[in-house]
From TrEMBL:
Its cofactor is (R)-lipoate. It comes from Aequitasia blattaphilus. This is Dihydrolipoamide acetyltransferase component of pyruvate dehydrogenase complex. Gene3D superfamilies: 2.40.50.100, Chloramphenicol acetyltransferase-like domain, E3-binding domain. SUPFAM superfamilies: CoA-dependent acyltransferases, Peripheral subunit-binding domain of 2-oxo acid dehydrogenase complex, Single hybrid motif. InterPro entries: 2-oxoA_DH_lipoyl-BS, 2-oxoacid_DH_actylTfrase, Biotin_lipoyl, CAT-like_dom_sf, E2/Pdx1, E3-bd_dom_sf, PSBD, Single_hybrid_motif. Its EC number is 2.3.1.-. Residues 125-165, 162-199 form the Peripheral subunit-binding (PSBD) domain. Keywords: Acyltransferase, Lipoyl, Transferase.
């Protein structure tokens, strides 16, 4: 029996996937366990295996194109089966479908016969999730009649219904076309403020067109979607939901450099500054567990595990591979895992489990010569450490009771915390202890 292959959901926050490559051609035999295609999820490239045997009868998605999760993208079945009939039966509900498979709500016969002046739920092609959203939020079906659905066979998905009930009422009252409004809410949802801003913009006098001699030359245009959009939405949600508070200090790296040199003379693996930062952060988190927290569903969760993520700029965008349970490992083991994760992150070969589950993150731009920067918290974590480059800097030290100006290799660090969960005193104590560990790195091993 033929099987409809859908875009899989391989991550909790994954709403759509990009098809990178078909590993089988139409008409080619497919065995159970064969890699059928590869997709870009929210962070990495993943192979997807066939769960059935037969032949690849049809594909509905080109390479490098996007599709929402649970959207049919291929048909695998017997050589003589009709893929169009299979898809028709699938869309009609004769086979088991995922939650986002659209269904057609048919109006009663007597309603069909009478002329309709209003749009009812039964007149729209909705996914179950979209239908539930309409009922729960009291959305007028009439306001959805002009929406072009992005689901299977044009079905309207919950993602297509992108405005809050208050925004819809305000748009109806002011005459603002919601399809032209860019939402700033979670997942691009149009909020009341977005409608007000759109109305204000529409009422402003239009600027004179710029002459052709001053026009911009465009090098390229790419859709704001996929990994870049996911990163943007996630960080925007963090920045505008969690009140960020910042604590900055400078670290004298003289002893840390000497410590690294001694370690690398006896260690089988080369210890990097990143390895030391991860290990020191774990020790500081163990001493101050109030930093090792998350705010989830109204509860403040404090973790015993110190799962430290290290931000990496890979080919597919920013990704944060996580070293789990650092508190239970040696510095050499942390170095080994860190190198492996970073290398595979740059190649886009991490599994979702390897870039999730963090309790604290580090963003290190020191190797790029950045003097100072501010990192945004990676939700649902409550803190992130930004690390800048080492620079020779004149500082004042006390020697023999006198103040002297000396040149030392200094490195700026900045701790960003969610002030809903972490108070200033606790953050200051954490930074002070981390500074003590990095300036006296032997203490990290004690």
């Amino acid at each position: 029996m033929a099987e409809v292959i859908c875009m899989p959901k391989l991550g909790f926050n994954m709403d759509e996937g990009q098809l990178v490559r078909w590993c089988k051609s139409v008409g080619e035999e497919v065995k159970k366990g064969d890699v059928l295609f590869e997709i870009n999820t929210d962070k990495t490239t993943m192979p997807v295996e066939s769960t059935d045997e037969g032949f690849l009868l049809k594909t509905m998605l080109e390479e490098n194109e996007y599709a929402e999760v649970f959207t049919p993208i291929a048909v695998v079945g017997g050589k003589d089966e009709n893929p169009e009939a299979v898809l028709q039966a699938y869309g009609g509900g004769e086979s088991t479908s995922a939650e986002e498979t659209p269904v057609v709500e048919a109006a009663p016969a007597e309603e069909k016969a009478a002329p309709q002046t209003e749009v009812a739920v039964g007149d729209l092609k909705l996914t179950p999730k979209a239908k539930r959203m309409i009922q729960e939020e009291g959305i007028d079906p009439q306001s959805l009649s002009s929406i072009e659905g992005t689901g299977y066979e044009g079905g309207i998905t919950a993602k297509d219904i992108k405005a809050s009930p208050l925004a819809r009422k305000l748009a109806d009252k002011t005459g603002v076309d919601l399809s032209t409004v860019t939402g700033t809410g979670v997942g691009g949802k149009v909020m009341k403020a977005d409608v007000l801003e759109a109305k204000k913009t529409a009422e402003e006098p239009k600027a004179e067109p710029v002459s052709s001699c001053c026009s911009k030359k465009v090098a390229s245009t790419v859709p704001y979607k996929g990994i870049r959009k996911i990163i943007g939405e996630k960080l925007a949600e963090s920045k505008f939901t969690a009140p960020h508070l910042y604590f900055t200090d400078a670290i004298d790296t003289t002893n840390m450099t000497a410590f690294r040199k001694e370690m690398n003379e006896v260690s089988e693996r080369k210890i990097t500054v990143s390895d030391i930062l991860v290990y020191a952060a774990s020790k500081a988190l163990t001493k101050y567990p109030g930093i090792n927290t998350s705010l989830v569903d109204g509860n403040i969760i404090t973790y015993e595990s110190t799962n430290v993520g290290v931000a990496v700029a890979g080919d597919n965008g920013l990704i944060v591979p996580v070293i789990k349970n650092v508190q239970e490992k040696t510095l050499t083991k942390v170095s080994e895992e860190n190198r492996d994760l970073v290398d595979r992150a740059k190649e886009g070969k991490l599994s979702p489990e390897e870039y999730s589950g963090g309790t604290f993150s580090i963003s290190n731009l020191g190797m790029f010569g950045i003097g100072n920067f501010t990192a945004i918290i990676n939700p649902p974590e409550s803190a992130i450490l930004s690390v800048s480059s080492v620079r020779k800097t004149p500082i004042v030290v006390e020697e023999d009771g006198e103040d002297k100006v000396v040149i030392r290799p200094m490195m700026n660090i900045q701790l960003t915390v969610d002030h809903r969960v972490i108070d200033g005193l606790l953050a200051a104590q954490f930074v002070a202890y981390l500074k003590e560990l990095l300036e006296n790195p032997l203490k990290i091993l004690m």
